[in-house]
Amino acid sequence: xxxxxxxxxxxxxxxxxxxxxxxxxxxxxxxxxxxxxxxxxxxxxxxxxxxxxxxxxxxxxxxxxxxxxxxxxxxxxxxxxxxxxxxxxxxxxxxxxxxxxxxxxxxxxxxxxxxxxxxxxxxxxxxxxxxxxxxxxxxxxxxxxxxxxxxxxxxxxxxxxxxxxxxxxxxxxxxxxxxxxxxxxxxxxxxxxxxxxxxxxxxxxxxxxxxxxxxxxxxxxxxxxxxxxxxxxxxxxxxxxxxxxxxxxxxxxxxxxxxxxxxxxxxxxxxxxxxxxxxxxxxxxxxxxxxxxxxxxxxxxxxxxxxxxxxxxxxxxxxxxxxxxxxxxxxxxxxxxxxxxxxxxxxxxxxxxxxxxxxxxxxxxxxxxxxxxxxxxxxxxxxxxxxxxxxxxxxxxxxxxxxxxxxxxxxxxxxxxxxxxxxxxxxxxxxxxxxxxxxxxxxxxxxxxxxxxxxxxxxxxxxxxxxxxxxxxxxxxxxxxxxxxxxxxxxxxxxxxxxxxxxxxxxxxxxxxxxxxxxxxxxxxxxxxxxxxxxxxxxxxxxxxxxxxxxxxxxxxxxxxxxxxxxxxxxxxxxxxxxxxxxxxxxxxxxxxxxxxxxxxxxxxxxxxxxxxxxxxxxxxxxxxxxxxxxxxxxxxxxxxxxxxxxxxxxxxxxxxxxxxxxxxxxxxxxxxxxxxxxxxxxxxxxxxxxxxxxxxxxxxxxxxxxxxxxxxxxxxxxxxxxxxxxxxxxxxxxxxxxxxxxxxxxxxxxxxxxxxxxxxxxxxxxxxxxxxxxxxxxxxxxxxxxxxxxxxxxxxxxxxxxxxxxxxxxxxxxxxxxxxxxxxxxxxx
Amino acid sequence: xxxxxxxxxxxxxxxxxxxxxxxxxxxxxxxxxxxxxxxxxxxxxxxxxxxxxxxxxxxxxxxxxxxxxxxxxxxxxxxxxxxxxxxxxxxxxxxxxxxxxxxxxxxxxxxxxxxxx
Lengths: 830, 117
Prior knowledge:
Chain A is an alpha+beta fold.
């Protein structure tokens, strides 16, 4: 198995693909830039670079003296293409080799295949076939096996439909691609697939249909909406007034064409200025029947070619087993329908028309053994190259110059630089003693570039340097770092306490900006004294908020509101931290459309007396709770230490009572400092305990859920569980209780998902709701529902029981539904 | 860093639509304050790890691989983006120092030679 070729290439006229057979399936490799399966078969030579594919295609029409396409049709001829920018000619073989080499870069598995199957059209003669082989060798393959495209497509189909019996049968492969049309009669002769006859049109394909849409549907409608003289000519001419629109509409037409494969109509909208300077914003509808009308003639012509084959071979349509459709343009339902209509036989669309040929090539490759007894060329031995590079590691510019000095044997070699995010590719450039390249940088990011040296067959040459790293923008300066986390204080609806949500992490580079979307956790009546508090604290985000330093405080009081804000309303919070660490908080209340902002600077601390009083009270409550818990656990050492904190807290309480709300002295700051220190001590005494408890809780829940999932979970739930377990290391060792809580909560949700399907749970819930019967809102309805529920239990109809439960639940009074959320609110946001 | 992205097509469709809505608002005004909702949706997508970039007005060269460009007019030098059919979509990873991103949808644009001043 390992000695099979396995790699297949569809070296197409307009697009090429590369595939690999692996353990029974075929993978179609994707372009690492943009993730498309297809590579346009276009090669360009611009500014001493060699560009292949999409980048070259851009310049195809405009710079046809330096960019070449459709060279496949010239394979095996003596014709060569003059390349203006090179001042020399390139043969179709050389150009094809560039495409093949580029396809090798799609292989993400790190393999560098030496043998490959390459497909050729049925029409290729010996010379053309040999030329294709040569191209393969020139691209560095040592063994090239050719395969006819219609056979490749048939193989793809036969491998998909395993039960297909093709013995003694013949069929047609109808290949209508982006720019070419081929049709072939395929037959099994003596157990082997053979192309018996073929026809084709080198200049017909899907891209022609896009142009038809613009010329024959859009342009006439546009001419009715505004004043245009000679619109189509003005669009199609390079110097024309509406040339830009032509290209725009071609793209839109292509989209519409794709949409029309599934829908009966599609719309194109755009903006254009007519000859009188009037701006038009037309929305032009294209119906499927209109589209079919304009391509009918072209499709009928393809059917004629197909009929020619039948006549030549004295066949009737019913002698054919099927017509196999390949090529992107056969996605159009009309193409299938029309061919069926004209020939009276079924067409087959069982395979992906875009990659069928490449997939078939891989299936074929899987049956061909690697035989490297006749290597065409010796690979160039890697030479010891010495490379000295110089560039700025940090930059504020959008471009940086990279230069390198190369020593050693580098004749015939190339280099190529690519940016890892997929936004830049230098193309292949000839390696010279000194190279200079302007590298464009992504803003505010670490830019990683890969530097590769390649020999003439596109094989990697080993060098001791391969990556260029340049930090741009904020990462380029040793900017001020934030010394501590900044966090937002939120109410924790589960514990009735508060929790911290990190806004900026420690060591974030300033300036920084962050956004948070929070929910209002209690209703604030407009005009009232009640308020929502946006509190920002500095210090580890694992701490309790009272242990951190308050650095920002923004209160939104009922007095300042235009209307009531209800519980559940969203507030957009934006936090901006300048380089000098001024913190600006903006709060936008969605329901009232009001915006509140405040700037805090580090020299000015905002500590309202009202909040301080409340915090100190809260601190005392926590102290009591913790002490009671430690007593229960007989942890007398902690009890004793906690007891020692009581006196200072009470002292604080007394002092804060003496402050007036508008106290102007610095007493409040002193008190706040003292409060913080006590809270920190309290935290230290209890933090470990809290985490320990959470870990225990997690372990217990995990055991339950694991048992439950293996008993009655589905695939989705199994996946969810293993996903949580897989990242255990991130939260079990963490000092952040929130992460642990979240994981436990996730497990609980999984268990609830399963439980809510089980009869026991549904019956139990029903009984619970029945016990609340007295307080249900509509007694008559409740009675009926309860009776119905009992019947469903007897009948074991649990789906219906679930419905009854849902309806009973909705009859519960609001406060009962919310009972879990009855609690103290510190901030009013969650 | 070899990362394979399998981006759900619906994410790209949603981002492209969002981009179009944003463009329409820019053109026709935003009387109802919809831009704020757009920003919020963009933030939500960013949390999922996806963001789009509007390449309008940016220079284009043959070395740019985050754009699929069609050249309008005769010139092929000093090209700038004059029409955006689809924006550039990046998958953004915020792990470790700095940001790492990868283009998951090339911007589809029309470019034109910048007119001499």
